[in-house]
Write a structure and sequence with these properties.
With about 160 residues, the chain is mainly alpha-helical. The protein is built from six helices and no strands. About 80% of the residues lie in helices and about 0% in strands. Helix 1 packs across helix 2, helix 1 packs antiparallel against helix 5 and helix 2 packs across helix 4. The chain starts with a helix and ends with a helix.
Length: about 160
């Protein structure tokens, strides 16, 4: 079991940029949304959502299982098997996170009746954005936190 400090650092290095970039992209791609006072609360909501999802959903176990099926005996967080692991992580996090952020964004705008269409319109852009973020920030967060080296040296123990 990795030390809690490594997990906290890995979560922060991954989740802060993910929430920030997803919030920025949703603001830029939606013509009805302006970069205004709601940006900070929406970033915080996105960050809290991704933190909650990270603690509720066993993403490490799912990534290990998917990567283990693709390349048995190899580290699932290494390339090329990481491309599929990243896709699985992206779908799990993004479908739920986009639903939450869309809900709260429309709640702030007092347009909650628009939720189904807004969610369907936002999801493809958010999936692509989150996939790129996972490909960039997940390996970075593993290196910065030291979790990557820890998992390599403690694999199977």
């Amino acid at each position: 079991m990795p030390p809690k400090k490594m997990i906290i650092v890995q979560n922060l290095v991954f989740n802060v940029p993910l929430a920030l970039i997803m919030n920025l992209v949703s603001t830029i791609t939606n013509p009805n949304v302006k970069l205004d006072f709601t940006f900070i609360p929406m970033f915080l909501i996105g960050f809290v959502l991704v933190e909650i999802l990270g603690f509720v959903i066993p993403i490490q176990k799912i990534a290990g299982a998917v990567g283990g099926k693709i390349a048995p005996g190899k580290n699932p967080m290494m390339f090329p098997q990481f491309f599929l692991v990243a896709a699985v992580i992206t779908v799990i996090l993004t479908v739920l996170m986009t639903a939450g952020m869309t809900f709260f964004g429309l709640l702030f705008a007092k347009q909650l009746s628009q939720f189904p269409m807004a969610y369907v319109m936002a999801l493809p852009v958010m999936l692509l954005t989150a996939y790129v973020c996972v490909l960039v920030f997940m390996p970075l967060s593993m290196v910065v936190s030291g979790l990557g080296k820890f998992l390599e040296t403690h694999q199977g123990k």
